[in-house]
């Protein structure tokens, strides 16, 4: 009887330590370096799942990632307002315009299309998993050519070995916290996208701000969710140092 038990235990260890195993495939056009876009619009996210919150969660993280990679990204509200002028109210209607037409409408060099392909939780008493998947495509708005694409999936699996672990799995399932897996997926997928001109390498800092103008450049207006770094805008108050 020992062999079956050992086999079962080994199988459970495989499930336990498989954890967040990313699976990805990607393509980058060979001449990307000669065609690096300055601006990329994160378009409304299409949804192939039954969860209505998935597109909103993805788009929030995507705007931060595109900016972090060194590209200018218009605010989602500005993009949606412009699309509404063409009677496009949801992601499923994006096909009514070409990337070239959307680029002209939004005044951007490239557009990012995203489709959520997986957003699910599985629970079987002693086993649970959360799975998130998505496809990404970036098109040059001048030529309509595909510059980059990636299809990615992340799955977190847990297998209970005792009663305490079963309770932990139940909690894991009930909470259904998808944000960490969306972030992990986007990080992995966009690691294959070359950086834009505004990208700041790790360890590098922005140009020193002279003391005489610090009083006007001390107000952060956005923070990258991935690095915590900020951009600055002119403020109306004066900053004093001791």
Q: Could you please describe the fold and organization of this structure?
A:
By secondary structure, the protein is an alpha/beta fold. The chain folds into 2 domains: 13-190, Rossmann fold, CATH 3.40.50.10610; 200-242, no CATH class. 31% of the residues lie in helices and 26% in strands. It has 6 helices and 8 strands. The chain has helices spanning 2-18, 54-68, 76-84, 99-106, 163-175, 179-190, and strands at 23-28, 40-42, 46-47, 110-123, 127-140, 146-159, 219-223, 230-233. The strands form 2 sheets. Strands 1, 2, 3, 4, 5 and 6 form a 6-stranded mixed beta sheet that branches. Strands 7-8 form a two-stranded antiparallel sheet. Strand 5 and strand 6 form a beta hairpin. Helix 2 (54-68) crosses helix 6 (179-190). The longest helix is centred in the N-terminal third of the chain and has 17 residues, at 2-18. The protein is globular. It starts with a helix and ends in a 9-residue tail after the last strand. The model is unreliable at 1-21, 208-225 and 227-242 (pLDDT under 50).
In short:
Helix content is about 30%, strand content about 25%.
Keywords:
Rossmann fold, 242 residues, alpha/beta, six-stranded mixed beta sheet, 6 helices, two-stranded antiparallel sheet, disordered C terminus, single chain, 2 domains, 8 strands, 31% helix
Question: SSE layout and pairings?
Answer:
Layout: H1 2-18, E1 23-28, E2 40-42, E3 46-47, H2 54-68, H3 76-84, H4 99-106, E4 110-123, E5 127-140, E6 146-159, H5 163-175, H6 179-190, E7 219-223, E8 230-233
Parallel strand pairs: 2-4, 3-4
Antiparallel strand pairs: 1-6, 4-5, 5-6, 7-8
Helix pairs in contact: 2-6
